[in-house]
Amino acid sequence: MARKPRIEYAGAVYHVLWSLGEKQFKQELLEQMEGRVGPHHTLPERQESEEAGAERLVGEELRRLGWKEEELRIRRKGDRDKAALARRLRAETPLTWRWIAERLSMGAAGSAANGVRALERK
Question: What pLDDT score was predicted for residue 18?
């Protein structure tokens, strides 16, 4: 059964229960929240919004590089392109080195941070 269209108000922020609704609907809400998360949002809402934004950045970079998701697992953890992506994620999101290292298959958090520092030295 299709969802009823909702009345939208300019500037309004909509809250939903994260465990309800279709995956696509949740993704649309996370995209709307990007950059608009405030202190009134709960920690899970913030984390999901931040991770959704990071996933968008990863997707952009994979397309730019012409890589498929598998490339992140195949390439060595100190790969320059992976380090450049880690640097972008660190600069544009509040996510931790641990999350970034795990997502980009860069080993431990310190490996990701060292890869970025090596880029900045060159």
Answer: 47
Q: For tokens 């696509």, what's the residue? A: 24
Domain boundaries, the chain: 23-121
Residue whose tokens read 């984390």 = 47
SS3 state of residue 36: coil
Query: What is the model's pLDDT at position 121?
Result: 86
Tell me the backbone φ, ψ of residue 13, rounded to 5 degrees. Answer: -110, 125
- The answer to whether 25 and 5 have CB atoms below 8 angstroms apart is no
The four Cα atoms 84, 103, 35, 93 give a dihedral, to 10 degrees, of: -50
Residue 37, CA distances (Å) to 7, 32, 43, 52, 87 in order: 21, 10, 10, 12, 23
pLDDT of 45 strictly over 70: no
Contact 52/34 with Cβ under 8 angstroms? yes
pLDDT of 79 > 50? The answer is: yes
Dihedral, 56, 24, 8, 94 alpha carbons, nearest 10: -30
